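Table 4 source record.
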Amino acid sequence: MVYPALVLLVGLGVAALLLLKVVPQFQAMFAGFGAPLPAFTQGVINLAEWLGQYLLWVLGVMLATDLPCAAPSSVSRRCVYGCCARAARMPVLGPVMQHAALARFARTLATSFSAGVPLTEALGPVAAACGNTLYEQAVLRLRQAIGNGLSMSAAMRNEPLFPCLALQMCAIGETSGTLDDMLDRIASHHETAVDEWLDNLASLLEPMIVLILGLVVGSLVVAMYLPIFQLGDVDLTMDLFETLARQPLAYQCVALLLGLIVGSFINVLVHRLPMMLERQWRCEAREVLELPNPAEPRFDLMLPHSHCPHCQHRIRAWENIPVLSYLCLRGRCSACKAPISPRYPLVELACAGLGLFAAWHFGFSASAAAFMLLSWGLLAMSLIDIEHQLLPDVLVLPLLWLGLILNAFEVFVPLDQALWGAVAGYLSLWTVYWLFKLVTGKEGMGYGDFKLLAMLGAWGGWQILPLTLLLASLVGALLA
C-alpha cells in the first residue's frame, strides 16, 4: 500500500502546486484579455483563490479531526461499538476487519501464553490489542468465562465472532497441550487472508489513482489553455483530429506513444494467444473423443494478471510502463532480480517506430491508421510464427477482410486489384504446396502461409506478390 499512497501524495502535491502557483500566473495574464473566460477556466480560478485563502484552515481541520480524544465518554464508546458492529456486517470490509482482529488476537495470545503468562491474565492485554471494540468486548467476556471454570474452546463457542476453524484448532491445542502452536497457526491463516486482500486492493488502487490524478492534472492544464485557444485564428471548437492534422509534430508524438502502448499489448498477445489456442484445441479434442473436460482456471488476454515467470511476482502498474519500466528496473524483476528478456522493450520500440513511420509517410490520413494496424499485426504474427511455427487465423483472417474493406474505398489500391491479389496470393502458394506434395509426398508449408499471402494481396494488390515472394525466399534462404 506504500506505492499507491506515495502516488496519491505526489499527485495531490502537484495539483496543489498548480492551483497555488501556476493558476495565479495565468489569471494575471487572462486579466488583460478583456473577454469573459470559459466557465471551466473560471471555476478553476475560483477554486485556486478559495484554496489560497483557506488552505491553512483546511489543514487545521484535518489535523484536528485526526487527533484522538483524551478521555472518551461512555456515549462515544457506544458509538464506536455501534460503528464496529455495522462495519462487521459490510460485504467487503467486514470480513477483512474480522480477519485482522482474529490475527491480532491469536498472535498476541500465542506470544503471551508461550511466555508462561496465565491464560486469564493474558486475555486482558490481548483484548486491548485486538483493535476492534467488538472483539475487545468478546475477549473480556471470554476471560470471565474461563475464570468461571470453562475451557477456552468451550468459552469461545459462546461467542459467535470466533469462526469454527479457530474453535476446532483451540480444542485440539488444549487436548494435545500445544495451544500456543495452534494459536500461531490461526494467526498465520488470518494474516494471509488480510495480506491477500491488501494486495488485491493495491492492484486496484494503483491504476485508479494514476487515472484520477492524470485526469485532475490534465483538467487543470486544459482549463488554463482554453482561453488561449480563443486568440488569433485558433477556433475554440477545433476538435482533437483537426489539431493533430494541423500539427504534424504532435501527431507523430501521439503515434509514437500509441505504438509503445500497442507494443506492450503485443508482448502479451504473442505470449498468451498460442497457449489459448492450444487449450481450445485440447478441449475440442476431448469433446470429439467424448472425454471429460476438467475445469481449468481462466486464461485469456486479461487474466491471470502478468507476473514474473521465475518467482510469480505480480507485475504492478508502474512496472508495466513501456520501455521506461525496463530501464528503471535495469532489466531485472523487482522481486527476485531475475533477468527480463530484452524482447519486451524491443517489441515496444519496434511498434513505436512503425507507428512513427506511418505518421511521417502517410500524414494524418486513414492510410496511416490502416498501415499501423497492418504493420502491428504482421509484427505479432511474425513473432508467433518464429516461436511456435503458427499463423493464427484469429489474426490473419480479420486483417484479410479489413484489407478488402479498406480498398473498397481505394485506400491503397482499387478493389478489383485487391480482390485478385487475395485470390492470386492464396492460389499461388496452394498450387506450390500440392505440386510439392505430389512429387515428394511431404508437406512443404502450412495453410497459414496461403492465408498470409492472400492477406498481403488484399492490402497491396496483385502487383506486390512477386516482390513479396522474392523477398520471402531470400530471407528464408539466409535464415535456413
